[in-house]
Amino acid sequence: MNTATAGTALQGFFRDFKGAIGNSWEEVLLQNSRNVSTPLAMRLLSQMGIGKDTETPFKLFENACGAGVIAPALQQIIKPNVLAQSSILCGDFSEAAIELAKRRLKSEGWVNTEVAQIDAQKTGLPDGGFTHVATNIGFHVVPDSEAALNESIRILQPGGILGFTTWHTEVGWATDVREAFQSFPFEAPFNFPMQTTAWGRWTDVNWIRRTLLAKGLEDVKVDVFAFLSHVESVDYFLSNFAMMMDLIMTGSWPEELRKEHPREQVHALMREWLEKKYGGDGWDYSWVAVVASGRVPVNARV
């Protein structure tokens, strides 16, 4: 799976993950959000200077929001009087994700929050409209990541803060799937690049720092954040990560190979491999992400 092929497969998955995951898509998405995306979002907000001690109202755009990660986190940590004077916009290109985010907004009562279908590469949002723009695990999979980065900076007001996370190392589930595929009694290609956008090196802290400075940002900070998430059982793994195995098979296995070895067989082999490695116990996966932030100069023209 080269970058272009991987990008096409991944964009198709994001566009219609209801079809990719099946009937349990909502629970899978929200479970992964709670276990993986939310810890990253909390760390990102802290680096952007937003937290329980925030006293100044803000206008924040959650870019590539999926079903909503930063928006619900803000509902929990921001003082009610500050939240009442602030505004939050969640945007994502995936109609399915936006539908779920809108339902969550209503059922969970997100304060001063709007949800809209927005393309990160061309948002259509006004210049200088936000105090904060946050993108959690997004830039490395946007087809035109430079356009998306430029858009994020454009819509920040002078003094506004950009923040984002991207993966720094291969995630734990991918390592297990790669090693399991190598053990199969037939050739099972595993090609899952760390980024699917052609521009940039989104795993590289030095490239990210240089790029943000070159884009004119100040107070640039690039850090690495690591944490663990628990996998309760083999069944839990297959419920939450089988969709990614299917994505890899779709993107890197020839059609003939997929017909010879359908997903049911692959999932059974994966189960056997996991049971042999971990037994009946649960296990932890490590996640290591780049956390980056920068500020638009106060004297910048809008």
From TrEMBL:
A GO MF term: S-adenosylmethionine-dependent methyltransferase activity
Matches recorded under CDD domains: AdoMet_MTases
Domain Methyltransferase type: 64-162
Protein name in UniProt: Methyltransferase type 11 domain-containing protein
